[in-house]
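Hi Prof. W.,

I finally got the SGNH/GDSL hydrolase family protein prediction working! I wasn't sure whether to trim anything, so I left the full sequence exactly as given:
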Amino acid sequence: MLHSQNVRRALGASAIAVVLGAAMAFYVADSADAGQTRCRDHRADARERSAIVTGEGGRVLVIGDSWSVGLGQDDLARSWPSRLDGEVHVAGFSGSGFSARASGCGTVSFADRAPTALGVRPALVVVEGGLNDYDQPAAAIDDGFRDLMADLAGERVVVVGPASAPSRAAAVPRVDALLAELSAEYGVPYVQTSDLALDYLDDELHLTEGGHAEFGDVVADRIAANSPARPAVLPR
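And this is what came out:
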């Protein structure tokens, strides 16, 4: 028979195990709920931003991430694409990138969203991103980029690479170099922005209103310097 002290110890250990198990289950459920809420918010922001059209002239489609949406801004209409020349349409989704697993919100990569986004029949497609691919393997970025270019074949395309946001600056050179190499392979202009010193929100990832204005103005100037953009082609 168990000594009474051993019984108490066994019961105590069981109680602790039950409490820890319950706490872990609560944490997992809470994390899942937080993820679902975040994805729902991202979808709402994406819909709101897509309904906003700025400027006049040739139709421009921006496919991008939270920077194109304007995450963290009071007025999404003032996110950086509004600084581009032309009638600008935005197909952005926060957390998305070139690679399929950059986002945990389902099939929202650039390639996943491009076919629908092209419904606006743009004269120019500007693809902006890379910060959310910071932890993705090169092969995943490569695959996503190639799938995207297949969707955009025949379109005039410019790729805008990631700026050096402080929270992910260490990963930017790798992603930047890979995107530049892939853009050259497909014969589309690559706009590098990793040299910019921009203003960021406290999360050190997203831009302030002033940061959006500066980023948009520089991107517009650099796109103009690369004009005319060439249609994306299959690599030789």
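The two ends are 79 Å apart (CA to CA). Does that look reasonable to you?

Thanks,
D.
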